[in-house]
Task: structure prediction
Amino acid sequence: MAEKKKTTTKKTETRKQEAPAKQDVKKQVPAAKGAAAPVKTGPSEKPRIGVFICHCGTNIAGSIDIKEVEAYAKTIPNVAHVDNYQYICSTPGQNKIITAIKEHKLTGTVVAACSPRLHEPTFRRATKVGGLNQFRFEMANIREQNAWVHMHDPEGATSKAKDTIRIAVAKAALLQDLTPKTVPVERAAMVVGAGIAGMQAALDLANAGIKTYLIESMPSIGGRMSQLDKTFPTLDCSQCILTPKMVDVGRAENIELMTYSEVDAVEGYIGNFDVTIRKKARGVLSMAEAEAKGISGGGCNGCGDCEAPCPVIKPNEFEVGMKPRKAIYINHPQVVPLLYTIDFDSCIKCGLCVTACGEKKAIDLEAKDEFVKVKVGTAILATGFDMFPVEKKTEWGYKKFENVITSLEFERLICASGPTGGYPIRPSDGERPKTVAFVLCAGSRDNTGNGKPYCSRFCCMYSLKHAHQIIEKIPGCTPIIFYMDIRSFGKMYEEFYYRIQDEGAKFIRGRVANILEDPKTKNLHVFADDTLLNRPVDMEVDLVVLAAAVQPMEDTERTRKLFGVSCTGDGWLQEAHPKLNPCGTTTAGVFLAGVCQGPKDIPDTVASAEGAASAASIPIHMGEVELEPYFATCIEERCAGCGMCVNLCPFTALALVEKDGRTVMEVTEAKCKGCGTCGGFCPGGAIWMNHFATPQIVAQIDAFLLGGEQ
Amino acid sequence: MSAPPEFPIPKREPGVWQPKILGILCNWCSYAGADLAGGGRIQYPPDVRVIRVMCTGRIDALFVLKAFADGADGVLVSGCHFGDCHYLAGNFKGAKRMFMVKRLMKSIGLDDRRFRMTFVSASEGTKWGAVITDVVKTINELGPSPIKEFNK
Result:
């Protein structure tokens, strides 16, 4: 290939302007780099690359002819050694790399196997153990992006594997020794969202001795779980098991609780996130805040004197709008912190509450949003979920017929602390319902484009629980459950399902097609197809409960972008790996807990929160983390000081400085994240991106297009 | 989610032209999306060879032009959706350059359909399959790059 490449390069040099520039960079860079440049071996050294081809059982060998690829790899220039093995990631496989580096005096290794996103760390370690710098390793992805996607085209897959290996060898030959940068980790963590997931994560972190900032956008912590009455399958009272945790969070010394606050801006990287938090104007001082302002013995003690005279009446969001609240309010008696909040959107600033508060002087009607800056090492997102607006499914008549309600409304109606004191009634006339229809998959598992394609996972189980509660609370009442499948997959869930069957709930397998209201009685006719009896059903019921799908909180989109976390098409936050790294994200130092990642019931949520807390505490306990040294460096001899790169950098890592009488660019390594946006633009080719340097990429392009079997 | 439409396996004989397409992918979105397509066993034609960079912002317009000068029949650049960039806005800056490449290609008489920038997220494995199938189809329709003839 070398000869061929030479001749072609010459040809291009005469024709294209950019080609010689790139070739020059390749030759000149090693000499041109300053003292700060990473250690390199001399330019005279001829690359000796070892290629290791993995069978991955039949995953790769099933579609790719390994023998043919191996024979071909031996002919690639600079390749000194080729080997193949069943599973290179296994210990014997890794040992092959380690021994070959010594035996064949390799200067670089290429493993043709799975995705670098999976096993790059494994093989880097093997390369390091073998005595080479770990960044002398390059991976050729012949599984995820070859064998698995060309299963019926072995010939095409084999030829692609040859090219992929050749491209990887070309890069490996030009790789340099790099040293990972170690940075200290701030001994503090942040949890965004104080539902059950966020609270559990914050408690775990705090108990591990880590200062934790718990940010909640609502006035009280507790999240969705605090709205529930009972929890399946044990029928524990939700508040009874949640409030101890809420109290713990409120009292924990290591937790700094910031309710009614939002994350406003995030800067930095793992170990050193600078987070700006917006404390929304609450209008009420806590006792500590009052003390700080010199009002001794003042501040809100939660007495509620201010609430009575307030003339503004608004729907209470916590009770899903079924109970009124004032403009100065607490949502329910068990709020943590016990601190009133003024809803400044509806407050008319009449001042009656200020008078009622009197000597405590807790109310400040002129309060403004405050911005607080904190520094944390790691962060956990636990932003939770919202209900799907089920009125979009017009066939079920939610918000059109009074007696069609959602499961969250039902949850409040059956809750002892709810608007009806725990006696479920029909919204139209306040009567006790005698037959209640539960419509499952209301918006979930819906491919019509008008709903959510995924399963919301906990609706089956809470609807079974609702059926139980209605049998328990209203003697003689029959729950009728319209279902597609009952998904009772958890521990003791199936047993719970049998129990509800035995208690007398009726199950009809069929999706509800339509719900119509009898205008006189306000009763509802539920039309469905009973797919077990194969006949249509028209059932008259008193109340319909829609088990609405769940969806990410509206604000999740904004928060995730602040932290640089990606999401799936449905808007759920995306984990680093669905199976092997379910709590991590692609942003190092940011983790996920609870339903913000996808629907989970309470046990799964708590488990994921504990997992995330454990993962988030690791870098903090280690005290320092290694960053991949993919920094930009300036080749000062080539830098014209134009400053284009300075404006391009999203992290303000670049600056122009005077050096030896010239203006050149300088990189602040701590700020550089290695995206290469500067290097992709520099008109003089003066920016050297470690590990993704221009000569390396150009060599890859050349190896693909000029090197192969033409 | 449905698999991309079936594609016939082409005849591969000496002398029969096979498209040479270079794909430059960002590490965080499209490369991960391509990995997801692999995990999901989504089948697509094998004519695209992939180079991984950390961000589409890293891609110099000259890389694309170098590939065409070297005789590539097509180039595909793929990154994150706007607003989803791991590095805040690298894909905006990359995309701006890629528009420039398209205009340059037009002005030198090279069909600009040979070059494409797509946005495939880490969760869009199916979309990745569809993108590759479509890119390969387009290049097959356009035939060998005229630059290759010119180089001979």
